[in-house]
Amino acid sequence: MEGRKQKAEELGETKKWEGVRTMTNWLGTQTRLSVGTSVVFAIAVALSGCGGNKSTTNSEPAESRAAKSDAAQPEAGVEKAKPAAGTGNVQGKVFYNSQPAENIEIKLCETFNRFMGGCTGQAYTVSTDKDGEYLLTNVAPKTYEALTARVFDTDSYVFATSGIAGISAAKYDVVADKTFFVSPIHLFKSDLKTLNPKAGAKVSAQGLELKWESYPDAAYYKFNINPDDSSITSPYINQRIEATSFAVDKPLEKGTYRWQVDAFNKDNRKLAESADDIKFTVN
Fold this sequence. Notes:
The protein has one helix and 26 strands.
């Protein structure tokens, strides 16, 4: 079975959009962000509709929604099409680098397991238009366990998580004759290249310099150095820097560390991240 590895980027206080990368083995989740609301939205019935526009919100009683701590909270919006009688619509928009993202596959999943199987059961799929907008129509009223967005033509996708720890995928309560407006999805890629230290390198803490390739449209970067030994506290967590290199100037104890870099644009939107399995050892 094809495996997937999760990452998250925080987009909100209680919801995250998580990125998921296809791997050869199932691996544990490292929640450090998600489309956070992490990513980080981080992933079929092509559907369309027509009709007059109407300003509306999802009108399930607030007390009912509040009781479901893992339920995604709907946004306000203008309907692109009126739902067919007895069914619901799901509508939203996808961005990358603060711009609408076209031809992104969106999937609404009846059941979902972030560790094994991904999206299963009844599913609805559609792609975003030139304005980054999507509309799933004729959706059977029920609670769906995830909404995913594929990261362009890769094997990666993102989905929203809920709760403080971001452990569970956010659920979507589709109501008959109503449109559920999903909060905006901000994609990020997983192709930022690190240069030094390389995976498996053995280094001295003195004179150690982290290096990575410049990323298009990046205004700044954030990096993390995480020790394998949980008793060691890392001096570098979400360290912000505008350059593409950093001379380590705080002591690193002997041991094995994993490091990763994220790129952000001028609007503080995450553009890309490096592989999260690059480890080096301090002698």
